[in-house]
Amino acid sequence: MSSPQSALLGPALEDVQTAVIVVDDSGLIISANDAARSGLGRSLEELVGEDFHDLLHRDSHGHATPRTRSPLRNAILAGRTEHGGSAWFARGDNTLVQMSWFVAPYACGSERAGALVLWTLLDRTARPLLDECAGRGVSVVAAAPFNSGLLSRACPPDNATFDYGPAPDAVLRRARRLADVCTRHGTVLPHAAVRFPLRDPVVAGVVAGFRSFDEVTSAAAWAATDLTDAAWADLDDAAELPEDGPR
């Protein structure tokens, strides 16, 4: 890893509590945070320098997928921002893990380097990484604003998912508290979820996955309409209560 890349990523990447793997322009892995290493059952030494697609990407039967038919690999090599549904990845013990994926290009100085940020209404643990990007003049694309479903409904249900797993009780209580604040201010939780990342000037855009045209239309309207200052103040207060979930 070159020194500019190391300086940008560094320990701040560990504050992002979803799996993040950083690759260079040719698709070789240059860094992976603790969440990624844990989810894949692989050490950093086992990952760095390896081709992301060849090492990790599999079909549902555990077979290697053709390079030319991999939308994830094609997005990496083309430098496109894309989000995909469930894909299968090989763990170090030869079992498979299913994950949704998001690819975004990134830049650091005159090099392409980068950071991918999960910065949501519910999970604000990436604050140090956003500050690092702001200090270096690097724009950020915020991914997964609904935390894989928990914030996508006006009232989170009992079976809601949080970062692709069952939502813990404490996190679910916190999401419902945020939903109650939205209701009091005449809006809905997914509206606040879409708009929240855009409050920070370092965030250039938000990427989310949708299943229907109606969902896309609603999200576009929410993204174009800010909440009131009073609503944000109450949401920030609710998010700062110490007893529940990540902040």
Structure commentary:
By secondary structure, this protein is α+β, with helices and mostly antiparallel strands. It has two domains: 3-114, 2-Layer Sandwich (Beta-Lactamase); 143-240, no CATH class. The protein contains ten helices and nine strands. It has a three-stranded antiparallel β-sheet. Strands 1-2 form a two-stranded antiparallel ribbon. Strands 6-9 form a two-stranded parallel sheet. Helix 8 (189-195) packs across helix 9 (213-224). The two termini are 30 Å apart.
Relevant terms:
single chain; three-stranded antiparallel beta sheet; alpha+beta; 247 residues; Beta-Lactamase; two-stranded antiparallel sheet; 10 helices
- Described by the principal axes of the CA atoms, the overall outline is globular
Can you count the beta strands?
Answer: 9
Radius of gyration: 18 Å
Q: Which ranges are low-confidence, i.e. pLDDT below 50, for 5 or more consecutive residues?
A: 1-8, 109-115
Strand content: 15-25%
Order of helices and strands: HEEHHHEHEEHEEEHHEHH
Report the total helices: 10
Report the sheet with the most strands, covering strand number, pairing sense and barrel closure. Answer: 3 strands, antiparallel
Classification by helices and strands: alpha+beta
Spatially, the strands of the biggest sheet line up as 3-4-5
Count of all domains:
2
Q: What average pLDDT do the residues reach?
A: 82
Distance between the termini: 30 Å
